[in-house]
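Researcher: Last one for today. Full complex below.
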Amino acid sequence: MSRVSARDKLLKAAGELFYDHGITATGVDAVITRAGVAKMSLYNNFKSKSELIAAYIDARHQEWLDLFARRSDNLSNGWERVLAVFDAYQDHAEFDYQNGFRGCGLLNAAAEMPADSAEREAVNRHKQEVRDIVLNQLSELPLTEESGNSAAALAEHICFLLEGSISLAGLSRDVDAISRARAMADKLIERAL
Amino acid sequence: MSRVSARDKLLKAAGELFYDHGITATGVDAVITRAGVAKMSLYNNFKSKSELIAAYIDARHQEWLDLFARRSDNLSNGWERVLAVFDAYQDHAEFDYQNGFRGCGLLNAAAEMPADSAEREAVNRHKQEVRDIVLNQLSELPLTEESGNSAAALAEHICFLLEGSISLAGLSRDVDAISRARAMADKLIERAL
DNA sequence: TTAACTATACAGACTAGTCTATATAGTTAA
DNA sequence: TTAACTATATAGACTAGTCTGTATAGTTAA
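Model: Here's the assembly. Have a good evening.
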């Protein structure tokens, strides 16, 4: 009948509950109830709630990587692929909007964790990866190297726009803020060429 | 001896614990212990933990308004006062850095709350107020009105930089990211004149 | 005296995680 | 075909502690 593993059911349920209500506010009982799974199935697949959280964080990042791959696959140059980074986030936002868009799940997860936690470090690594993607795409472009106009600085500028717009879009329930940030990034790249 | 009211002790303790460990993860017992106050003093001053959270959110915002007022008081024009918005956040970041900087306390608080909560709405109002401050300062400047170069669009761009840089600064433990965002905003304004 | 405070105890629901025992489906081998 | 074995799932009771909020009685200071 149901050939979906308990592990996948748990990750799906945790993904929904953690994103909608926050991680700390979501108990393991709520997760197993939503997953329709026995409690021991949680603890057979994950050593602890912390490990489930870590898997959730990785899954959210992978989810975004997949959305980005789909958006950037058939694009011909770095400029367009940088803009596809925004498109991938917008896809994600519009998907979550039905249940209540609350911004980036990774930043939200980090916001609940102590400063030196492994979870915050994992989110940091994922965000660095996004920045590296932006930087790699920009490096393909013939940027005019004015003072302080390096690809690295431009990549950071674009990432600030990205994360800022997602947070404020989630707060003000205005998903379109992400596409306005995309237009800002577009103009920045145009000026840097 | 101690002429500090129980209410103020509670707000101070809650401010530290909520910021460092998150709101949901902080129990009222931890707050009263840190405040050195009886539990009934909490419930005499606040109807519930929710009301303490609301007071915490307002206090964080007021704290930033005070930092901004101190930074912008003796400045002569809107350009400088927009940059003072970044300075005020940097002051806040450097203050928190001793205990572990975790980005903006208001965005972190919002990240723990459900999509339609009063707390998220309060944080949204505060962020709108920051944007209005930026917009008001920009409105004093003689901006050249190119296509899509309105004061409103520039204000939004600067706010994206602001929030994005604070979040990423908190994640990567690189407070200097805020001053790099300040430099980006500076150049944007220069170009818009 | 009045108001704000303290200390302690309590109710009742919830927390993460463990335990035993059982069911079921797929694989392997005689 | 039948039997043994393995992996994964289940139910549900249980521990030991935490959570918010309340109740009660005593204390301190203006």
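Residues 27-29, 39-40, 42-43, 48-49 of chain A lie near DNA strand C (CB under 10 Å from a C1'). The CA atoms of residues 23 and 41 of chain A lie 19 Å apart.
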